[in-house]
């Protein structure tokens, strides 16, 4: 019967971000169980681990190369299996990432101070700031670059693997240079677009002399008033809202706006000729 004090290790349904920590907890619990039950034989300890670990842990163990060794002199099959599983669930620690997690820790809602301190101590035990004073200073400067200066996309790259201070500063400088160049390119392009918009706005706000609408001129073939009749002067070629014709009685009915302009110009020229002819007639009478 399975010992209820050691639950199966459900690695298949476990969040990958916490699987290393959960494996360390499970293995610690299993080690205490072996001591309590006084199980010392290597083969028996390995069998107990596979049995209590459950089907999901067994699937992993049986598929890791050289995790299960048999009959090799001087080789402890239990230690080999534990080493392979630990390597599988707990890859090499990224100290930079572990320190980032430590600085990101916040107390959960309802969490007591003592429990939060224990959580901080557990996370702090997974990394070190350095062995010498210089290493400690450079480590803190490097971490500050990542936490405060680096934008989110660069931060992900810096936390993927270990980098020393020189590498972090260089990557930040490259990112800053690229950002500056991109901003310059964008600022050079914007004025052209602004001018285009300004010109377009000026054209759009001009009103047509025929219909009074915006977006085209009076010479536009598609102007809706080009062939329309004015309700004010009854002439063709414009709407009443843009009518410039005075209210006069016309003998010849309605005509077009363009024809009216031509007739006005012709009449003006005739009057000039008549005036000049009358003046010459008066001058001739004086000489008679």
TrEMBL record:
Domain of life of the organism encoding this protein: Eukaryota
Gene3D superfamilies, A to Z: Zinc finger, CCHC-type
SUPFAM superfamilies, per the entry: Retrovirus zinc finger-like domains
Protein name as it appears in the record: Uncharacterized protein LOC125777475
């Amino acid at each position: 019967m399975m010992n209820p004090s050691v639950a199966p290790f459900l690695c298949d349904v476990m969040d990958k971000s916490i699987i290393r920590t959960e494996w360390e907890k499970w293995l610690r619990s299993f080690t205490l169980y072996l001591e309590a039950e006084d199980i010392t034989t290597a083969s028996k300890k390995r069998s107990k681990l596979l049995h209590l670990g459950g089907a999901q842990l067994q699937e992993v163990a049986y598929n890791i190369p050289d995790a299960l060794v048999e009959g090799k002199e001087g080789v402890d099959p239990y230690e080999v299996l534990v080493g392979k599983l630990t390597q599988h669930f707990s890859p090499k620690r990224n100290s930079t990432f572990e320190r980032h997690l430590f600085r990101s820790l916040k107390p959960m809602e309802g969490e007591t101070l003592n429990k939060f301190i224990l959580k901080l101590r557990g996370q702090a035990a997974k990394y070190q700031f350095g062995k010498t004073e210089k290493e400690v200073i450079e480590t803190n400067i490097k971490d500050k670059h990542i936490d405060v200066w680096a934008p989110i996309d660069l931060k992900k790259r810096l936390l993927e693997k270990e980098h020393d201070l020189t590498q972090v500063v260089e990557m930040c400088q490259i990112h800053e240079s690229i950002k500056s160049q991109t901003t310059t390119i964008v600022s050079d392009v914007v004025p052209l677009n602004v001018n285009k918009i300004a010109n377009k706005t000026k054209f759009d706000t001009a009103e047509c002399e025929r219909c009074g609408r915006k977006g085209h001129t009076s010479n536009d073939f598609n102007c809706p008033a080009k062939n329309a009749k004015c309700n004010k002067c009854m002439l063709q070629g414009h709407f009443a809202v843009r009518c410039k014709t005075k209210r006069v009685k016309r003998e010849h009915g309605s005509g077009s706006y363009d024809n009216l302009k031509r007739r006005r110009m012709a009449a003006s020229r005739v009057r000039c000729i008549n005036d000049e002819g009358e003046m010459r007639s008066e001058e001739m009478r004086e000489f008679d």
